[in-house]
Design brief:
The chain is mainly beta. It has a single domain, classed as Hexapeptide repeat proteins (UDP N-Acetylglucosamine Acyltransferase, domain 1, 3 Solenoid), CATH 2.160.10.10. It has one helix and 30 strands. The chain is globular.
């Protein structure tokens, strides 16, 4: 007995696995070799969508998840259980969204962004590439709620946002910056800089954090962690990190040449 509700107008690629009680509505495209687990709804409409829902190849959407119409998601999407991706979002390849998390719609997310569980990415947020956002973190977009003045944060490439953090509306987090766990970031954070606390404060360059040997810098993180990333990228990262290590952190915009 087929317990799924699949629109005849949906475009489903080859070798796509569907669980039970899956709903796929009109205007949905799912790439080859994807897995959609039970109790998912792909193509939910709230009337605000602009276009179809496109999900790239090799995606794995775990049970009880909902993806709205209007979003375009690249290849290799991986979600936890009970996630929501709302309308009109542009999301790159390799997005990993932790269990119980929500992308509130109208957001821009780059390639290889990874989040922990119970993360909320507010409307109008702009999230770059190769970013880590750890559990229970919120990117908020309304400085004086409730209002109609929506302005999400901007997170630059390679930034790390620690668990239980809040990033305030309109705030920019710099390239390779580090937001410590529990930080309430209420002002812009410079490239390669650490912010901690509530209210947030900068405490220096990320290179000050050392590994257990007391000598090796823990950040930028990508010189010591490359698992799951394409080899051609990781080789490039190692060259870039060597260049960063030889330059002073002086706020002069030296990272522009590495972008």
């Amino acid at each position: 007995m087929n317990m799924n509700s699949i629109s005849s107008k949906a475009r489903i690629g080859s070798n796509v696995s569907l669980g039970e009680y899956v709903t796929i509505s009109d205007g949905v495209e799912i790439g080859d070799n994807s897995v959609i687990e039970s109790y998912c709804h792909l193509g939910y409409s709230n009337g605000r969508e602009r276009g179809e829902l496109i999900i790239g190849r090799n995606s794995h959407i775990r049970s009880h998840s909902i993806c709205y119409l209007g979003s375009r998601i690249g290849a290799d999407l991986v979600t936890g259980h009970h996630v929501i991706i709302r309308e009109n979002s542009s999301i790159g390849d390799g997005f990993q969204l932790g269990a119980g998390s929500i992308v509130m719609g109208e957001v821009e997310i780059g390639d290889h962004v990874k989040t922990g569980s119970r993360v909320e990415i507010g409307q109008k947020s702009k999230v770059g590439n190769f970013i880590w956002i750890f559990l229970n973190t919120t990117l908020i977009n309304d400085k004086y709620p409730p209002s109609l003045e929506i302005d999400g944060p901007t997170i630059d490439d390679f930034a790390v946002i620690g668990a239980h953090s809040v990033i305030y509306p309109g705030v920019s987090v710099g390239f390779d910056a580090l937001v410590g766990s529990g930080c309430f970031l209420s002002k812009d954070l410079s490239d390669l800089t650490i912010a901690v606390g509530n209210p947030s404060r900068e405490i220096g360059p990320v290179t000050r954090i050392k590994l257990e040997d007391g000598v090796s810098a823990a950040y930028p993180w990508r010189h010591r962690f490359q698992r799951g990333y394409p080899e051609e990228l990781t080789k490039k990262w190692l060259r870039e990190v060597d260049a960063i290590a030889s330059m002073p952190v002086n706020g002069s915009g030296f990272t522009e040449s590495l972008r």
